[in-house]
Structures are given as C-alpha cells and as structure tokens.
Amino acid sequence: MEIFGYTLLAVLLVAVLYVILTYNRLVSIKHNVDKAWANIDVLLKQRHDELPKLVEACRQYMKHERETLQRVTEARGRVAEARAAGDVAALGAAEGMLRMGLGQLFAVVENYPELKADQSFGHLQGRITGLENQIADRREYYNETVNINNVAIEVFPDLFVANWFRFGSRELLEFSEAEKADVDLKSLFQ
Questions:
Q1: Rounded distance, CA 55 to CA 124, Å?
Q2: How far apart are CA 159 and CA 144, in angstroms?
Q3: Which of 23, 40, 45, 21 is nearest to 146 (CA)?
Q4: At 130, is the secondary structure helix, strand, or coil?
Q5: pLDDT by residue for the chain (190 residues), tens digit each?
Q6: Cβ burial, residue 174 (10 Å; 0-12/13-18/19+)
Q7: Which of 96, 93, 73, 89 is nearest to 183 (CA)?
C-alpha cells in the first residue's frame, strides 16, 4: 500500500509539474505574439505618419493624378482603422490596397522628372520603402510566432492545458491575392 501511495504521489507531482511547465511555455508564446504584433504596429504608425507628407509632395507636382493620390489616402485611412481595432484580417486587406496604391504612385512618378528629382520626395520615398521592407520582415516574424502559438495550443496533450486556461488561436497577417500579383505597369502609363 505504501508503494502505491508513493507512486500516486509521484504521478501527481509529474502531472502538476507538466501543467506548470506547459502553462508557462504557452504564456511565453502568447507574449511573443503580442510583441511581434507591437513591432508591426510601430512600423505601421511610422508609415502612417509619413504618407501624408508623401502625398502632399506629389500633389504639388501631379495635378492630374488625383485618383492615384486619393487611393493612397483612402487606403491609409483603412489601415489606420484596422490597426486601431486590432482586426488582423481587415488590416491584411487594407495593407493590400495601400501597397497597390503606393506601387501605382511610384510608377506614375516616373512621368514627373521634377518630382523624382525633388530631394524631399526622394527622402520620403526612401523612408517609406524602408518601412515597407521592415513591415514585411516583421510580418514574417509575426506569422511565425502566430503559427507557433496555434500549433502549441492544438498539440496533444498540451491542448488540455491550453483549453483549461483558455489560450486561443491567433490570425495570420495575410495579404490579398491582388496584393501579391505583379503591378501592370503598361496600364499605369496609358
């Protein structure tokens, strides 16, 4: 009877230790996802602040390209709304629209040599391009941490601890198929 008691105590101790270690690992993963999202959020805010300056610089030169500038401005607003709401799916769609608008804007700029030569425009274009690259890098890291989170809460037997403590899955930050397609430069110059 005494051996049975020690065995039961050892099994309970192992189970409690397992729950504690699993819980702590899941908390760490959850915070990594939040940190990855915060990194993207900072870059989106920086780009959000730079875009009006770029649009204004372009507006001075590009009087008849109002539609392209309007698209960038509207997309900027949608990104800001999705970012503020923390809606990852809406952010992905809005980012797609914004990136397409910026691609079109930078392509149209080729028709305006004075604008291309403008020092402040060149600085803003370089800054926004750099931010776009950083957002892409951070998005990749965010999606990786989300994937780690989603797998960790679904694997057996960790899923019991995840369900017990209500750890939830997170959404990947994905862009639309249109965002991934090549820009049709011919149509932009016609």
A1: 10
A2: 19
A3: 40
A4: helix
A5: 688 889 999 999 999 999 999 999 999 999 999 999 999 999 999 999 999 988 888 887 777 677 888 888 999 999 999 999 988 889 988 988 898 888 888 888 888 888 878 888 889 899 999 999 999 999 999 999 999 999 999 999 999 999 999 999 999 998 765 554 554 444 443 4
A6: middle
A7: 96
Count Cβ atoms within 10 A of the Cβ of residue 44 and give its class: 0-12 exposed, 13-18 middle, 19 or more buried.
Answer: buried
61 is written with which tokens? 């030169």
What is the residue extent of each domain of the chain?
19-188
Q: How many Cβ atoms from other residues are within 10 Å of residue 163's Cβ?
A: 12
**Closest C-alpha to 72, from 46, 98, 43:** 98
| Overall fold of domain 19-188 | de novo design (two linked rop proteins) (1.20.1440)
